[in-house]
Amino acid sequence: MATTSTTQTLSSPSTQEQPRTGTWDGGNEPFKASYGKLMMWFFLLSDAFTFAAFLTTYGLMRHRHLAYTGTNEAFEFSTAYWPIPDKVFNAFPGLHGIDLPLGFVALMTMILIFSSVTMVLAVEAGHRMDKNDVQKWLLWTILFGATFLSCQAWEWSHFIAGTDEGTVMEDGTRFFGANLQRNQYGPVLFADLFFFITGFHGTHVFSGICLLIWSFIATTNGTFEKRGHYEMVEKIGLYWHFVDLVWVFVFTFFYLV
Amino acid sequence: MAANIPTNAPVHGMPIMPRIEHDEHTHHDEHHEQSFLTKYIFSQDHKVIAKQFLITGIFWAILGGALSSLFRIQLGWPESTMSWLTPVLGKWVEAGKLNPEFYLALVTMHGTIMVFFVLTAGLSGTFSNFLIPLQIGARDMASGFMNMLSYWFFFASSIIMFISIFLETGPASAGWTIYPPLSALPQAIPGSGAGMTLWLVSMALFIISQLLGGVNYITTVINLRTRGMSMSKLPLTIWSFFLTAVLGLLSFPVLFSAALLLIFDRSFGTSFFLSDIYIAGQALSNTGGSPILFQHLFWFLGHPEVYIVIMPAMGMVSEILATNSRKPIFGYRAMIGSLLGISLLSFVVWAHHMFVTGMNPFLGSVFMFLTLIIAVPSGVKVFNWLATLWRGNIRFTTAMLFSIGFVSLFISGGLTGIVLGNAALDIQMHNTYFVVAHFHLVMGSSAFFGLFAGVYHWFPKMFGRMLDEKLGYVHFWLTFIGVYLVFMPMHYVGIAGFPRRYYAFTGFDSFSQFADLNKFISAAAIFAFFGQFVFIFNFFYSIWRGRRATENPWNSNTLEWTTPINPGHGNWPGAIPAVHRWPYDYSKPGAEKDFIPQNVPYSQTQSSNLPNEREMAE
After folding, report:
1. Residue B144 CA: distances (Å) to CA of A33, B147, B242, B466, B586
2. What's the gap in Å between the CA of B95 and the closest CA on chain A?
3. For residue range A87-115, what is the model confidence (pLDDT) as tens digits?
4. Considering A29, A225, B79, B507, which has the largest number of Cβ atoms within 10 A of its Cβ?
5. pLDDT for the residue numbered B618
6. Contact B222/B188 with Cβ under 8 angstroms?
7. Who among B216, B257, B268 is closest to A53 (CB)?
8. Closest chain B C-alpha to A140 CA, distance in angstroms
9. Is A5 on the interface with B (CB under 8 A)?
């Protein structure tokens, strides 16, 4: 045995000048991912920390305020305690006065999740180098994304406009809706955080749509086809899925918990 | 032994690893004629970007140092007439006295400039950019374009911060930690008006710059190492830059969150950090927010930030100590392990800056425990540096002096960290000059020493010329003595109870016996500041007139010394050298010379190979 191994090492003089070639030994890409894709992953990791800071802020702020302890039926808006989301977000466009707890936001969320599905299909079409399919699915993704944003605009405008009755505030005046300083649904921070965090997420969706439109134009012009790969679509896809995932957390914090 | 000849590209019998496209692109660029604008201003060459960071950093360091001299004059001679400063400070000198609010602005800007603009951007911006591609054997950063953007975002951020100094209401004045509500309410102090707005805008741009740089550094280290450059053959510099970038990537976004929330509180009337505030007898409408929340968010960045500042210095010092002791670094793997340990711990100790905010004492003791654990990896590093020096064949180059100075300062400052890390002791010490003395030694001055060591050591590679050694010695001794003369007495002042950020102590009888000591500190600070001009002269003189460098002036092992004296864009004119060994083969028994560069295969060093290496060579 020993002799064999010696002869083996001796009989391979060509390895003398060669460095090792393992996964992490350099000269290759350890994760088998291009630098661009790695950068996107690291950017998303960083962005996740930004969102984590905001959601932590939400958690701490909510903890600092009193929770509502009565029954669901007896709930009334008051600045004294944190509101029940079911009671705040119960409106649906065109169905005025009907109580549909979280109905509209569920629809919005579905639309956004669908946009992730079409994004996957666009990336997959890119792997097949099928320009037409990439175009088709990118367009669907843009459409769903824009629909989500429009829904959010409605949600915001409804939140700002307020309920028909409004709420009698601490100073005795009746106030309708919410802005950054006053809030009929509960403590002012509830509105501050709602506007800030959904707004920050919406900004991300908006940037995503811009990127998607840009990549749609580039696909149509054949830029990626000439390049030989659709990696750019894949990178934007990573971003898009991340934004969707963040929405799941935002949704959980603001609407479900 | 062919020390400086790059090993050729893959020869016979080996699968040729696919080089990344990018590589060839940059290689191509080398042959293009570049205009002045693309070569020196909007350059995508990591070496030029590094120099841009360095020179901007030097500019900021002079300014930051000058500001500290100004407030030290106030602290040392509180009763003197300052009219002679009117030509510089204009209306901020009123009837011969420095405006107290401007004093706060000076302190704030000194901190902001030194921590972010000099020791973050100037230090890791310079050396991560310069050394990562050169030491791992890459043509350039993964994305040269983003690297360029990183500098220009930093530049824009610098311009905005610089402009803020000249505002009528003065720059930000709430301290470099910009705690609300002071920073959130323009009614509170003049500096919380437009100055604070510009501070926040500038920092937002700064964070973007850090992010662009950071993802680049990390990706480059992962993807672009040359053949054979495994993670356990990386010079310690690269490990430290890599982990610094990871820390920046994970902590700066949280500062970004805090800054964004603060911007909303300031400009759009939200109440995230504000609650129940009376100002000038009037109640503000804000309710429900928490200023402590800001501190949590801030220090979640702020604590890793001090390691972002010190780790690149640690890496460079390790490299310089080994090279100039002509000995392998002691405990290479322990050095990497301790860097990893420090990086990990840096994220779970932030609340030790907040012991006296009224936090639960139990929570305080958890953070105290975690904080004191940091002494372990820090101790490992210190002992390894000392063991590297132990019985070394030491060459006292200027870089070596500054590296030894770094170790000295790190020990002196680190010991008081153990004091301050105790929640109970911190009740007495917090917000005194003891804290100021501690962090100025352990992260301020030591990081500066690391920076100087790096500049003296890699100047020949940057500019193809040597810095003057004699002037370097003068600079070292002035700085080293100056720093200790400033910060050693400051500990006593702190133990005596002097609070930081006070404009004058003349109103307190108990402090009058320390007036002389304060005067002494001020004199020493100004002395040390003027000592730096020796370096400034040396630096700019040597760029054009310095002694010409040789290819490998320090007989060093790392790859950057296998490039030509003035490497072009693409770094190596021929193939990139492959790597066969770790970077610390100094004074290896049986070797012909006292150093064996990383690109020399074992087959060429039969006389010095260890038993396990003999197999590799046969």
Report:
1. 18, 5, 17, 28, 34
2. 43
3. 899 889 988 888 899 999 999 999 999 99
4. A29
5. 56
6. no
7. B257
8. 31
9. no
| Distances from the Cα of B610 to the Cα of A3, A209, B606, B607, B615, angstroms | 21, 59, 9, 9, 9
* Gap between the Cα atoms of A241 and A220, Å rounded: 23
pLDDT in tens, A228-244: 999 999 999 999 999 99
b/e per residue, B589-610, with b = 16+ CB within 10 A? eebeeebbbbbbbbbbbeebbe
- Nearest chain B alpha carbon to A51: B257
Q: Which residues contact B141 (CB under 8 A, 6 or more apart)?
A: B46, B129, B132, B133, B147, B216, B217, B220, B224
CA distance B337 to B151: 31
Q: Within a domain: residue A24?
A: no
Contact state of B287 with A187 under an 8 Å Cβ cutoff: yes
- By Cβ distance, the residue of B228, B254, B268 closest to A26 is B228
Between CA B99 and CA B97 the distance in angstroms is: 6
Contact list in B for residue A228 (CB cut-off 8 A) is none
The CA-atom distances, in angstroms, between B288 and each of A78, A174, B178, B284 are 14, 21, 20, 12
A38/B contact by beta carbon, under 8 A: yes
Q: Which residue of A has its CA nearest to B275?
A: A189
Kindly indicate the confidence band of residue B373, based on its pLDDT and cuts at 50, 70 and 90. Answer: very high
Q: Count Cβ–Cβ pairs < 8 Å, chain A vs chain B.
A: 169
Q: For B546-565, write each residue's pLDDT tens digit.
A: 999 999 999 999 999 999 99
Q: How far is residue B43's CA from residue B25's CA, in Å, rounded to a whole number?
A: 15
Positions of chain A with pLDDT under 50? 1-15
Contact A192 B260 (CB under 8 A): no
User: Cβ contacts (< 8 Å) between B142 and chain A: which residues?
Assistant: 35, 38-39
For residue B293, give how far its alpha carbon lies from the nearest alpha carbon of chain A (Å): 7
How close is the nearest chain A Cα to the Cα of B276, in Å? Answer: 13
User: What is the predicted pLDDT for the residue at B617?
Assistant: 64
Highest mean pLDDT among A9-13, B276-280, B383-387, B500-504: B383-387
On whether any CB of chain A is under 8 Å from the CB of B584, the answer is no
Cα separation, B139 vs B19, in Å, equals 11
Residue B490 in tokens: 């400051």
Whether the bond into B15 is cis, omega within 30 of 0: no
Q: Count Cβ atoms below 10 Å from residue B96 Cβ, excluding itself.
A: 12
State the CB neighbour count (10 A cutoff) for residue A172: 6
Q: Do A64 and B290 count as a contact with CB atoms less than 8 A apart?
A: yes
* A29 at interface of B, judged by CB pairs closer than 8 A: yes
Nearest CA of chain A to the CA of B501: how many Å?
29
Contact by Cβ (8 Å): B199, B93? no
Kindly report, residue by residue over B276-308, the tens digit of the pLDDT.
Answer: 999 888 888 888 999 999 999 999 989 999 999
* More confidently predicted of B3 and B523: B523
Q: Do B264 and A180 touch (CB under 8 A)?
A: yes
Q: pLDDT tens digits, residue range B56-112? A: 999 999 999 999 999 999 999 999 999 999 999 999 999 899 999 999 999 999 999
Residue A25, domain member (yes or no): no
Residue A32 within a domain: no
Does the CB of B289 have a partner CB in chain A at under 8 Å? yes
How confident is residue B33, by pLDDT bands cut at 50, 70 and 90? low
Is pLDDT of B1 > 50? Answer: no
CATH number where A217 lies: 1.20.120.80
Report the domain count for chain A. 1
Nearest C-alpha of chain B: how many angstroms from A26?
5
Task: Please indicate, yes or no, if residue A11 is contained in any of the structural domains.
Answer: no
Residue range(s) defining the domain that contains residue A207: 37-256
What is the bridge-based pairing of β-strands A66-67 and A81-82? parallel
